[in-house]
Amino acid sequence: MRNATGRIAERQADRSYSFPKMQNSRRRKPSLQACRVIELKHLRSAIAAADCGSLRQAADLLRTQQSSLSRRIDELDHHLGIAVFERCKSGVRPTRAGLGILRQARAIFEEFDALVANAGAVQNSEAGRLAIGFCTSLSAGNLQASLTEFSRRFPLIDVVTSERSRTRLATALRNGALDILIVTGSLPLLENQVLPLWSERVLIVFPQNHALAAREVVYWTDLRGETVLLSHYDPGTEFEALLTSKLVSPQDRPKIERHYVSHGIIKGLISMKTGISLVLESDIGANFAGLVYRELRDEAGPSCLQFSAYRRGENENPALAAFLDMASSRYGSAPPGR
After folding, report:
1. Are residues 192 and 310 in the same domain?
2. What pTM does this model have?
3. Rounded Cα gap, residues 58 and 102, in angstroms
């Protein structure tokens, strides 16, 4: 733990950043030359300062002088016409406008990292690289099995995985940062090719002392009066659409709460007995203590969601072709475009 002297020294170091007054920063207009003079070093300095909460610690992290880091943030403020940070007792913290700038800066670095990785893959074509995006669990199920088999068959191909929201995955596929997406439902993107893969059963998950835990099978109609917690991340939207199709009458539907959190957080909320949720069978591998899974049925039998692989038609990555050949052989579908 830092002593009082260390904390005082750190606060004094942070004061070397010339924080603009907020009322004045609102009046300034972004520099017309901002797009030409803002460099990655400015964004990297701002991200480090936000992560550390201290200019001194950020400078140590980037192995630069604190004065140089302060100058870069000051230049960023000037060219954007806003104050990215404000001083606080513990160091620095982003302003409201700065939060948006930092969010976009992180996205820029994600794309930059993808650019560098793609360049490396081109240079090292013998090994190859395959970038896969998905919205499902890797703890068990067909996706895990497919990636395991692919790595066994092609040990020299570097497989990079990305789990994000559907919108960000679609953007990454469109701009070439990803080679293939494996998602549920449809992905309405032009010039994409689709390979149907597998389907997974839909399960209900609830605390072990829940009234439904005594049943081996749960029917959709049993959800009436319950609170169903769904993530805004996929396949939350497919779950909600499926629930609506199974329970046509609003009076028969459970209460739905949507949360901007991961599926793991949803399970934490279930453990707190705030509700129940829907998951796919591959999610069982990432079980939480005290939770129970049951198959969801109607009169026709189990309910399932279909997974498909999406790729850009012009993508000629040999590693992607190898993966599609393996997937088509494993799941009995013809590779797209052949």
Report:
1. yes
2. 0.57
3. 15
Same domain, 40 and 102: yes
User: DSSP letter string over 152-219?
Assistant: HH-TTSEEEEEE--HHHHHHHHHTTS-SEEEEES----TTEEEEEEEEEEEEEEEETTSGGGG-SEEE
Q: Could you tell me if 124 and 84 lie in one domain?
A: no
| Tens of pLDDT, residues 164-212 | 778 888 888 988 899 999 988 777 665 688 888 888 899 999 999 999 9
Query: What 8-state DSSP symbol labels residue 125?
Result: T
Q: Of 334, 205, 175, whose CA–CA distance to 269 is shortest? A: 205
274 shares a domain with 240: yes
- Cis bond before residue 235 (omega within 30° of 0): yes
* Phi, psi (rounded to 5 degrees) for 71: -65, -40
102 and 249 belong to one structural domain: no
What's the token pair of residue 266?
């949803």
Domain that holds residue 280: 199-304
Collect all residues with Cβ–Cβ distance below 8 Å to 195 and sequence separation of at least 6.
308, 309, 310, 311, 324, 327, 328, 333, 335, 336
Whether residue 205 is found in the same domain as residue 300 = yes
Output the DSSP codes for 238-257: HHHHHHHHH--SGGGSPEEE
CB atoms within 10 A of CB 2: 9
Helix or strand holding residue 38 (H, E) = none
Q: How far apart are CA 136 and CA 163, in angstroms?
A: 8
Q: What are phi and psi of 105, to 5 degrees?
A: -65, -40
